[in-house]
Amino acid sequence: MAQDAIEFQYDGQPVRLPLVRGTEDETAVDIRRLRAETGLITLDPGYANTGACQSAITFINGEQGILRYRGYPIEQLAQGSTFLAVAWLLIYGELPSSEELERFEREVTRHTMLHEDFHHFFDAMPKSAHPMPVCAAAVSALTTFYDEPTTDDEIAKSIVRLIAKMPTIAAYSFKHSIGQPTMYPRNDLGYASNFLHMMFATPCERYEVDETVARTLDLLLILHADHEQNCSTSTVRMVGSSLANLYACISAGISALWGSLHGGANQKVIEMLERIAAEDGSADAFLRRAKDKDDTARLMGFGHRVYKSYDPRATILKSACHDVLDRIGGSSQLLDIARRLEEVALSDDYFIERKLYPNVDFYSGLIYQALGIPVDMFTVLFAMGRLPGWIAQWLEMRRDPDFRINRPRQVYQGPRERPLPAS
Ligand code: CMC
Question: Which of 63, 192, 250, 320 could form a disulfide with 214 if both were Cys (CB 3.0 to 4.6 A apart)?
Answer without folding.
Answer: 192
